[in-house]
Write a structure and sequence with these properties.
Low-confidence stretches: none
Structural class: alpha+beta
Strand order of the largest sheet: 1-4-5-8
Mean pLDDT: 94
Distance between the termini: 18 Å
Largest sheet: 4 strands, mixed
Shape: globular
Number of strands: 10
Helix content: 40-55%
């Protein structure tokens, strides 16, 4: 792969840095002090600014008013957003518009993409199945009925579901295919039950009972869900990387100022070694992220399917982000648990990202299955 970013990708990340520069991570109540959600809605003002900067249309084609870039560009923006814990459905909305752009009908693209790129239509994706551990596409059934589809089932932990206009819902058909249905949150037959993330953000259990969806709102293309799922996972790895980089920077600044025995604690060998280990974690998270994003963006062939590169990125992101925040808490001492200092928020978000990615051992098993099925060399 080529690790050099294009001029367009570099321009996007510079725009993201400028936009997120004044976002503060403690703009809502602390999740440690809140029994429910930290806020009823996402940051609409920031969402509007993202739309004005064309950052909601990174994956939308220029013919629909978007920027027309790729998964690498999206991951660059997500990385910057996570450094400040930006409370916006940027990953879910972007991934959903990518699926519509790549696999939707011309009519569906015309209806959805221009409005989504301008911020007037917000999309999310139901990707966690019934429990968060089972295949999302098996949690909902889809039965064709003339010009409509009939959906029944349940998806848990759907992010931003109460505030998004449309949810992209994977569902399995009687003949074993997976379709993607775009369903309004207030559609007849849909019930939302309140859930909360470890980070304090709102989630929802989404129950579908006899939900009838027009065929024009259903994507039937083979492979659409597999690629959308890979993009969501890779984007989550980008969030983990950005969060980890933000935390390591905070730790470096704190340990450079905190003194013991007349010297900054950053000069102590035990502190420096731990920080160096976490820096190595972040570089491994970064290189595996770009490998996965590059495979998704280019469709390039490899020794393993793209899912293999995504699994490697998830292994490093899931374990790496946990190690980074744990070390940061340790090096901050009791100050790291102070709710007037933002580190505890990063710890909560990191735990939510780790839970979203799933355990590294599970991804190692998936990678092993791919290695067994594809001879190398």
């Amino acid at each position: 792969m080529d690790f050099t970013f294009t001029e367009e990708q570099q321009a996007v990340v510079e725009a993201a840095k400028a936009l997120f520069a004044d976002v503060v991570p403690d703009g809502v109540p602390s999740p440690a002090l809140t029994s429910g959600a930290v806020a009823e809605d996402f940051d609409r003002a920031l969402w509007s600014r993202l739309a004005d900067a064309d950052l909601l249309g990174v994956l939308i084609g220029t013919e629909h008013g978007g920027v027309g870039l790729d998964a690498i560009a999206l991951c660059l923006v997500l990385r910057e957003s996570a450094k400040v814990l930006a409370r916006v459905p940027l990953l879910e909305n972007s991934a959903a518009t990518w699926a519509v752009q790549a696999y939707g009908s011309a009519e569906l693209r015309r209806r959805v993409l221009p409005r989504a790129g301008r911020g007037g239509l917000v999309l999310t994706v139901a990707a966690n199945g019934r429990t968060g551990h089972d295949a999302a596409e098996l949690a909902v059934t889809a039965q064709r009925d003339g010009d409509t589809w009939l959906l029944d089932g349940l998806q848990t932990a759907v992010p931003w579901a109460q505030n998004a206009d449309l949810a992209v819902i994977p569902a399995h058909t009687p003949d074993g295919r997976t379709v993607l249905a775009l369903v309004p949150r207030d559609h007849e037959g849909i019930t939302l039950a309140e859930q909360y993330a470890t980070s304090g953000e709102r989630l929802a259990e989404l129950r579908l009972e006899g939900v009838r969806v027009a065929a024009s709102d259903v994507i039937e293309a083979d492979g659409a869900w597999d690629r959308l799922r890979d993009l969501l996972a890779t984007g989550t790895c980008a969030l983990a990387l950005g969060l980890g980089e933000g935390v390591l920077r905070m730790t470096g600044e704190y340990t450079s100022k905190r003194e013991q025995f007349g010297h900054p604690v950053a000069t102590f060998q035990a502190v420096a070694v731990q920080a160096a280990d976490r820096y190595i974690d972040l570089r491994a998270m970064e290189v595996t992220l770009w490998q996965a994003a590059w495979r998704i963006s280019t469709g390039a062939d490899g020794a393993l399917p793209t899912a293999g590169d995504v699994s490697v990125a998830k292994i490093w992101a899931s374990d790496g982000v946990r190690r980074v925040v744990q070390t940061a808490q340790h090096l901050h001492g009791g100050f790291g648990a102070d709710t007037d200092y933002p580190l505890h928020r990063y710890h909560a978000w990191a735990k939510q990202l780790e839970l979203s990615l799933g355990p590294a051992a599970a991804h190692e098993g998936a990678l092993g299955d791919l290695l067994a099925a594809h001879a190398l060399g």
